[in-house]
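Title: Prediction job returns without error message
Component: structure pipeline
Severity: low
Priority: P3
Assignee: unassigned

Description:
Job completed but the reporter wants confirmation the result is attached to the right record. Sequence as submitted:
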Amino acid sequence: MRAANSLKIAFFGSGLASSYRNNAATYQRGIIKALAELGNQITFYAPDSFDGRKHRVMDDPEWANVVFPADESGTRAALLHASTADVIIKISDIGVVDEWLEREVLNIHGKPSRALRIFWDMDPSTRLERIKRNPYDAFRSLIPRYDIIFTYGGGRPVIDAYKELGARFCQPLYNALDPKTHYPVPTDPRYQATLAFLGNRLPDRDARVFEFFFQVAAAMPDAEFLLGGSGWDSHIPLFDNLNYCGQIHSQDRNTFHCSPLAVLDINRDSTAQCGFSPSQQVFEAAGAGACLIVDRWEGVEMFLKPGKEVLLASNGVEVMSHLRTLTPERATAIGGAARIRLLTEHTYTHRARHMQEIMAERSQMRETA
């Protein structure tokens, strides 16, 4: 039996058990699991596409009923099945029948007939730029019809951009900490370094990685640097003080973050230029008690206090300045303060409560309209 204030929520997305072609899976899992723990009833509909089920990192979760429609006809049946939900959420960029789903979610007829329709944009900067370039974009006319637009971060620039396109209500939902997954552990000699960076190679982040990480390693030959992530094999400068450890799997990430003196996080160019959205890496590292150095971005103080809970750098020179004055004692203090801040204000339970409050408020507004 559901709690009196709980909601029956239907999600249409790429899946919860695999990150394959679903880069935001960890973020989605965190929020949706927290929504379930608050007493909401979750059904997640996902097309069995791109062999996603062959790349699972977990079994289908017990906190969500997961349904896999195989094609458009299966998705149509799933929409009918979802029509009795209190809230119906279309997550962006499923990869299969996206445009059709974005339209048909708004056209569901069922009971309750006044179910909230929500669009959850996983890449708002890219979508908004696409709509800006094309006044006839198919999604443009749908925006005012959704009751809520949730976005994967973005801050005020993304909110304003969506409102200018007619959105009734837009709210960013930021990454957060799952304290049951990311927490302090003993250090490991494999990952000890002065500065570590964990991130897959991405074309729109290459230049920033070279400036904030590789050039710093070149200028500080007496310090040790550690690189983790995939795609770097043929793109790593040959420095004696730089070690590459490849992809870091989930079970090793706490150790990776706890072992270096400091951990670096670097935004993609698109994120740095359009609003802001702290990466999952920020919360994973700070949740493990790491001393974080991040490239300076608007809104960082909403999550961590500069100088006390995080160190900011505008370029490689400032990264070097931090490393030359950072002691193990200060690094431990910064990492500990960051972890406390996240536990107090920025867990996935905090995000889920905020999301539920918004949905309940907007639902009530519809009922009284």
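Comment from assignee: result matches the submitted record. The chain has a mean pLDDT of 89.
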